[in-house]
Amino acid sequence: MALHFERSEFDARRDRLLIEMADKKLDAVLLFAQESMYWLTGYDTFGFCFFQCLVVKADGSMVLLTRSADLRQARHTSTIENIVLWTDRQGANPAIDLRNLLNDLDLLGARIGVEYDTHGLTAYNGRRMDEQLQTFGQIADASGIVGRLRLFKSPAEVAKAEKAANLADDALDAALPLIKQGGDEGNILAAMQGAVFAGGGDYPANEYIIGSGADALLCRYKAGRRKLTKNDQLTLEWAGVFHHYHAPMMRTVLTGKVSKRHQELFDASRAALLAVEKAMMPGNTFGDVFDAHARTLEAHNLTKHRLNACGYSVGARFTPSWMDMPMFYQGNPEPIAPNMTLFAHMIIMDSETETAMTLGRTYLTTESAPKPLSRHDLDLIVQ
């Protein structure tokens, strides 16, 4: 089987989940998030765009309900032994199949947790499921249970993150020679993604972000390419990915001369990222990290040009986003603890002058100061 961790690792993860289930008095949980299934069993697919559910009972047994297209996928990539199929057909309602499965598992009248907060369960399918289960048992929202377990990385997961970070660095190294006057954004993207693939990496959970000129102020991918000019700005947000573990980076690279405004924004972004590093330590919270970023940019008179979040947890994620919870935003009480992999990004977008500046990298938290996972420094890159 194509497992990327030892069986003992999966057993330990299952045991951690069972402790949480017992604490919340759950007889079973219905998992719909693909990253939850991957973390717990190794199951690797994009088939979660259709209805599928991993049922985990309090005794540790698991049953996957999925479609025929994912039967072999589950057998080949996961530790799941019991797989039940629902049939594609006109008028099919897999929520009925799920109810029947739960009945076969002797869960009628049980307290069942549901992982609602995920792209793996659409509102349409969620409503159909609720209709079938409203009188079946006591249903509780179990969103975030597995997500919080995934927040703390094992040594084996840290190794995946470190490999992903090496691939992110390789991607930047591949891009830099192409970032110059006349350089084509398409060639830059191809070089970056190609470096990750050549290094044994995977597709990212969302598209790389690339934009030059006025588009350098955008924080999302969009279609369309352009070529760089003599004095240009290019914003890149990308991730090295290894066995679905992500290590994002973010930089705004300049061609030609550095404007006064670019230098001002870079100095502020670097100061803010260094302040964030000092706050990213046990004893502080995710909200404290955001506050360090906000205070620094306020001191540079840039409050109106910053965002309302400055990073988030990262790990093994699936489409449509590599962003994980929790995030760095105001008031977030989640404590910083060792063995988290966290992406911090400083994003300053001055729409008045159409000047962009970004700076970000992935960290491993420790008992003290966080460890940057990138080998690149924080200097302004000018080509």
Automatic annotation (TrEMBL):
Residues 161-366 form the Peptidase M24 domain. Gene3D superfamilies: Creatinase/methionine aminopeptidase superfamily, Creatinase/prolidase N-terminal domain. Pfam families: Creatinase_N, Peptidase_M24. CDD domains: APP_MetAP (cd01066). This is Xaa-Pro peptidase family protein. Residues 13-151 form the Creatinase N-terminal domain.
